[in-house]
């Protein structure tokens, strides 16, 4: 198994029992797990503890965005849970990012969310955010300037950002869809192989794995597609 698995399985579940049942069908040596807003809202910090006890490293995807002091305090509490990675919204601005950075200490990674992969050009125009690539680029520069460990971006912006930000600045890409799968509510998508070739470090994959009849086999297929064999 990889010591640094590229795939992060999104546990977008409605209750902790469902999430734990899914986790028990996956191998912590083959993937990490993402706990997002819905699951954390219903299950709280206990779900993070339960998943970590099963050997998984956790990406806590709560996308904090509030006044700087509130975000910093929340980030500190989240880091105390022992998560591997967590995120804040880059649109929170430089002071918020700087205070979050001070609150989150190694080994926990802190990344900034740029533009959600569910947004298309029409929605971005309605929000006054303009072109996705330009906005993602400016937000990534802001995150790097404030010392964050990387950003969350769509795979379509990964090549642009990797050309401007060398590793270890990490690119985390949702919107990953294995060959032949549905895009659902994602708009700016790519296959895992395409995202890695563009410079991504980690791939967030949800329903293609979690909605499969055999999640462990779906995960194995995703790993094989990106050349990460057992």
Q: Could you describe the 3D structure shown?
A:
There is one protein chain. With 230 residues, the chain is of the alpha/beta class. It has a single domain (7-225), classed as Aldolase class I (TIM Barrel). The chain is built from eleven helices and eight strands. The protein has helices at residues 16-23, 37-43, 45-53, 68-80, 94-103, 121-126, 132-145, 158-164, 192-198, 207-210, 215-225, and strands at 7-10, 32-35, 58-64, 85-89, 109-113, 150-152, 170-173, 202-205. It has an eight-stranded parallel beta barrel with strand order 1-2-3-4-5-6-7-8, surrounded by eight helices. Helix 4 runs parallel beside helix 5 (94-103). The chain is globular and about 40 Å long. The model has no long low-confidence stretch (mean pLDDT 92).
- Rg calc: 17 Å
Tell me about the biggest sheet? Answer: 8 strands, parallel, barrel
List unreliable stretches of 5+ residues: none
Order of helices and strands: EHEHHEHEHEHHEHEHEHH
Topology:
Layout: E1 7-10, H1 16-23, E2 32-35, H2 37-43, H3 45-53, E3 58-64, H4 68-80, E4 85-89, H5 94-103, E5 109-113, H6 121-126, H7 132-145, E6 150-152, H8 158-164, E7 170-173, H9 192-198, E8 202-205, H10 207-210, H11 215-225
Helix pairs in contact: 4-5
């Amino acid at each position: 198994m990889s010591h640094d698995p590229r795939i992060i399985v999104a546990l977008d579940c409605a209750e902790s029992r469902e999430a734990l049942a899914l986790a028990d069908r996956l191998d912590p040596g083959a993937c990490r797990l993402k706990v997002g807003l819905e699951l954390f809202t219903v299950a709280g910090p206990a779900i993070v503890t339960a998943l970590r006890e099963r050997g998984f490293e956790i990406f806590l995807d709560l996308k904090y965005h509030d006044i700087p002091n509130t975000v910093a305090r929340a980030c500190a509490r989240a880091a105390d849970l022992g998560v591997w990675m967590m995120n804040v919204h880059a649109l929170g601005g430089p002071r918020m990012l700087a205070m979050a950075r001070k609150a989150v200490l190694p080994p926990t990674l802190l990344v900034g969310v740029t533009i959600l992969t569910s947004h298309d050009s029409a929605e971005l125009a309605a929000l006054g955010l303009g072109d996705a690539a330009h906005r993602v680029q400016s937000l990534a520069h802001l995150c790097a300037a404030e010392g964050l460990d990387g950003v969350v971006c769509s795979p379509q912006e990964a090549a642009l950002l990797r050309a401007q930000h060398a590793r270890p600045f990490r690119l985390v890409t949702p919107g990953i869809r294995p060959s032949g799968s549905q895009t659902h509510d994602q708009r700016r998508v790519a296959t895992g192989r395409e995202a890695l070739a563009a410079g991504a470090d980690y791939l967030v994959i949800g329903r293609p794995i979690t909605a499969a009849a055999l999640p462990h086999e779906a995960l194995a297929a995703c790993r094989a597609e990106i050349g990460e064999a057992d």
